[in-house]
Amino acid sequence: MMCCSLLPESPLSPAALPLWPQTVPYPGWGPAAMTDTPVEESLFQIIHCYHQYAAREGNAETLSLEELKALLMDNVPRFMESLLVEGPEVGYVPGQVDDSLPTPQGRKEPYYIAELFRAADKNKDNQICFDEFLYILGKLVKDYHLQYHRQLCAHYSAQHNLY
Q1: pTM for the complete prediction?
Q2: Architecture of domain 38-83+108-161
């Protein structure tokens, strides 16, 4: 079962495109155009980071569990450290990862990444293709968004003497 949306025969598949093409399939696309805004630069950096870690061993288009752990340890260390912090266990069921559960922020869960890997690996090939990586990225963004709101609320509360 093919995981990623681009088929090997596709003229746009990663194997068919050179790493930095001189001409790109769509005008205005490519590394130079992607650096025009902070969001586009961030997207390009995420894609580059994914491929950098995927190329470390085995299939250069997928992440193994070890490659995923290395990517997260190196690139989202605050999130990874939060998995080892003691905290309330409210609403979290060990061994279960899905969108209805709160994020593991502040919980002692050293096995969370392995559980997240299994939940993201939709085709159960023990590899994470880019489409499956987007699920993990979505969980990370949701967690960072929650932290943003917690900090914003704490700042507002401190300003208005609500504590």
Answers
A1: 0.65
A2: Orthogonal Bundle (1.10)
